[in-house]
Amino acid sequence: MLFPEYRARRLRRTATLRALTRETRLDPGQLVYPLFVIEGKNSRHPVASMPGVYQLSIDTLAAEARQLVALGIRAVILFGLPATKDHSGSSAHAKNGIIQRAIKELKNTVPELVVITDVCLCEYTDHGHCGFIIDNEVDNDATLEILARVAVSHARAGADIVAPSDMMDGRVAEIRAALDEENFVNVPIMSYAVKYYSAFYGPFREAADSAPRFGDRASYQMDPANSREAIREATLDVEEGADILMVKPALAYLDIIARLRDEFDLPLAAYQVSGEYAMIKAAAANGWLDEERVMAETLIGIKRAGADIIITYFAKQMAQLLAKGQF
Ligand code: PBG
Questions:
Q1: Ligand 1 contact, 274 CB (< 6 A)
Q2: Over the stretch 115-125, which tens digit does the pLDDT of each residue have?
Q3: Angle of helix 98-109 relative to helix 140-157, nearest 10 degrees?
Q4: If you measure from the C-alpha of residue 282 to the centroid of ligand 1, how many angstroms do you get, rounded to a whole number?
Q5: Domain coordinates of the chain in residue numbers?
Q6: Which CATH class is domain 26-323?
Q7: 186 Cβ contact partners less than 8 Å away, ≥ 6 residues apart
Q8: Which residue has the CA at smallest separation from atom 7 of ligand 1?
Q9: Count of CB atoms within 10 A of residue 234's CB?
Q10: Is 130 in the pocket of ligand 1 (CB under 6 A)?
Q11: Entry pTM
Q12: Considering only CA atoms, which of 144, 119, 134, 120 is closest in space to residue 87?
């Protein structure tokens, strides 16, 4: 059918027609809200580079979680700022570590909320790298056992899903084996399968106090130029036992999200990272962009590219808009 028989504008004429024929929808139940957990009491520290994001003490988590559930959000991902850091990141698997206590608090007070934990060492090591350092290099194999201990400690505290973000080779298999050995056979692994070496993580490093003290993460995170390698990374993680795959960041990697959607049948997550959030907030604060529309447009783009689950600092704001029947 060609013009004038076919007129594309017929279905765009009214808001209801557009809504009726819309191909992609956002669901607050598939948005995951990141939480930064700090020591202390009754604390809510704003993160300067991420307006609207706060570091929260454990006693404030329950109220936050209730608010999320009321908005239809089903899951959070936790990042911890520990009281102490050391060479091997041992506070990451401490029985009474910040994340372990946060998980317990959340599962005790809002049990229906899915608690995902970021499994990594960068917030817990005094050098800020995601693994164990030997001779000034992040040693892959020495890191695996530590990561497995972290994952098991999270499962023991009650985590619903563990999400390794370190980018060591072989970590999904190591974590799966360790979980199974401790009888956590039903704890899924959401693997940061395709995580790029990205400058978009900048604001997160302030929020999580996790910037590397020397060098950078280019020797373990992926080169942004690579797409075939993304398939290779995801294939390995599937073979090692990943239950959910993730692409990170999101907006500059929509082609990768679409490719993974085509090639794999596992649930696919995308992480709209701190820098993606900060850019929109900064431009909106200057009056240069319409914040709500740009937020919704980026999130719908990520969904349209093929992501089922979106991890985003906009989760609450987007859920509020959806509840009002907008977008
Ligand atoms: C930990 C981790 C990072 C992010 C999630 N997990 C930082 C990094 O890899 O440097 C980034 C999230 C964001 O920027 O919002 N390794």
A1: yes
A2: 999 999 999 99
A3: 30
A4: 20
A5: 26-323
A6: alpha beta
A7: none
A8: 201
A9: 24
A10: yes
A11: 0.98
A12: 134
